[in-house]
TrEMBL record:
Destroys radicals which are normally produced within the cells and which are toxic to biological systems. PANTHER family: SUPEROXIDE DISMUTASE 2, SUPEROXIDE DISMUTASE [MN], MITOCHONDRIAL. The lineage of its organism: Eukaryota, Metazoa, Chordata, Craniata, Vertebrata. This is Superoxide dismutase. Residues 117-220 form the Manganese/iron superoxide dismutase C-terminal domain. Homotetramer. Mn(2+) binds at H54, H102, D187, H191.
Length: 226
């Protein structure tokens, strides 16, 4: 993924432009976003233990490593060290992608989630997939089929104005990888479900639909269309 595309995506997760571009010594560091619900609020579908480890350990590690890598990248830029800049880009992509993906993921979930979307989002789902049930079936299948670690996504194709399903490996961010604007993501790294669902990934994916925050997905859809 090109670094400029990656920077655009990181901007969505950062408080100011300075935190992206590293302008001067006042560059703000990326921070772990607070959850809008307690760790146990998504039970029984996602356990409190998983949520605590996932958020406070795994996501926090991506944030910390991203900050360290960005500092090194800025030093390389200042020195004009192109070799160092190139060597740091995989770490920027991995840790930055982890930060982007998880920041979206937490908002995609809600204790009062589940059910069905409403309004224009539901109309678009019916148009592009036939029904909400067919969307769930197709997205679940694509997500379960991810080899190793990765994500299943519902995204918006701005060129066609259509909803699309895609899967990304590891922490590759959807927009930088496919050009789709992320609306809804399902994390299928084992740390997202193994303590509760063991190796039965399909059960986890089936359960997560009970806590999908369709209001958040719809907000992302409305923003993506602009």
């Amino acid at each position: 993924m090109h670094y400029c595309t990656f920077v655009i995506e990181l901007y969505r997760c950062a408080p100011t432009l300075k935190s992206i571009l590293g302008v001067g010594d006042s560059r703000q560091k990326h921070t772990l976003p607070d959850l809008q619900y307690d760790y146990g609020a998504l039970e029984p579908h996602i356990s409190a233990e998983i949520m605590q480890l996932h958020h406070s350990k795994h996501h926090a590690t991506y944030v910390n490593n991203l900050n360290v890598t960005e500092e090194k990248y800025q030093e390389a830029l200042a020195k004009g060290d192109v070799t160092a800049q190139v060597s740091l880009q995989p770490a920027l992509k991995f840790n930055g992608g982890g930060h982007i993906n998880h920041t979206i993921f937490w908002t995609n979930l809600s204790p009062s989630g589940g059910g069905e979307p409403q309004g224009e989002l539901l109309d678009a789902i019916n148009r592009d997939f036939g029904s909400i049930q067919k969307l769930k079936e197709k997205m679940s299948a694509a997500t379960v089929a991810v080899q190793g670690s990765g994500w299943g996504w519902l995204g918006f194709d701005k060129d066609s104005g259509r909803l699309r399903i895609a899967a990304c490996a590891n922490q590759d961010p959807l927009q930088g990888t496919t050009g789709l604007i992320p609306l809804l993501g399902i994390d299928v790294w084992e740390h997202a479900y193994y303590l509760q669902y063991k190796n039965v990934r399909p059960d986890y994916v089936k359960a997560i639909w009970n806590v999908v925050n369709w209001e958040n997905v719809n907000q992302r859809f409305q923003t993506a269309k602009k």
